[in-house]
Amino acid sequence: MSTGRFRGGGRDKCRLHIVTWNVATAEPPEDVTALLQLDVQPPTDIYVIGLQEVNATPVRFISDLLAEDSWSHVFMDTLAPRGFVKVTSVRMQGLLLLVFSKQIHLPYIRNIQTTYTRTGIFGYWGNKGGVSVRFSFYGHMVCFLNCHLAAHMNYALQRVDEFEYILEAQDFDISDTPQVRDHKVVFCFGDLNFRIADHGLHFLRSSINSGRLNLLWDKDQLIMMKKKEPFLQEFEEGPLNFKPTYKFDRNSDTYDTSGKKRKPAWTDRILWRIKPKILPSEDDDEKASTSTDDGQDDEYPILVSQDKYTSDMSYGVSDHKPVIGTFSVELRKCFDTPLVHVSPLGVWSADQDALLTYTVQEDFMSSTWDWIGLYKVGFKSASDYESFVWVRENELPETNEVIQISVDKDGIPLLGGQYVLGYYSTNMQSIIGISASFQILESKRAVMEGLVPDRVNGLNK
Q: What is the DSSP string of 321-349?
């Protein structure tokens, strides 16, 4: 995203892309570019991907704890070359939530925390529930909640109870935002499992086939429940102008032809909520909303507008179709200076030790366990470093003190290339300072040992 579009001072816009998909234990498709709409204009700043029913058999789940799961891999492999870095992820059995950000925003995503809540209805403890990620984005507290609620037509009330329980049960170790609804902006999405009540299968299918989706809205259980439940009225949702996303025969766009012939339904949804000063009125269905809370929110308001709410029928690995929501988030930054400035010194190559400097530009809870990583341009996550050095160990730095650290030549890539340095805060669980990209020169050792680029991909790899 250009700095001109997200500029300091005044009001700034960023673009948010949310995907929710019940993948029904399937392996990911080879190509997820259409799902991510990578070439859309204006470009996306943050991707949030919520999956349900990721393969969670005991053997598979244990292996995924030791290494990234296949779904995380495909999204990281697709987004990293486009300059997106995985901010964090959280997993609870089949529920997986991934957050990716443009590299330019990383120093302004702080105080990252994740949590999960189990809802063991029907005796399957942990197969349903919610996982969430919260963080401060340019000083604005945001939360993303991925849910999988109780299934079946007759359990609408249980779904509402589960949703409310998740919102109330999730705790964060942050004094001003201890619960989900304390955040300035909340996005809730997932397989909420609400069905279309009363209508018969023939009427449902004929309404869908003729494009008269509006005939079904009055009997959508979530829309019906929203009229009765005050806490649901705090959440907004765009119009359901896309076909119901459940249930399909796999690898097709044909609704269920099995013996069960499940009725089509909008089970997969994306909702959002702006922290209100007072509860919104029942008939308030405006598409955009503004935070009107007291204190800081008056000086730094935030506006959320939904640009797109749709599904992608081209993906057939699951019996659900993925749902996509894109949003314009208009805000005024509470700050636009990184906590730490980090920079390489001089020429870098693996032939000699190198130098870097870092400067704490604003006081924060630093730690001698903080470290500075060397990352190849296009890195996937904070842990995807080539090498790292610990920050100064003997004492914590003073504000604006320039600290110089030596980097051992053995930690510098022989072949060189484009790299950045990132300062990782252990307490904040995030990169809070990142350098401009710089060139590491190909080392003389690489030439002497024959590790030149044309042979790296051949004899010596």
A: --EEEEEEEEE--S--S-SEEEEEES-EE
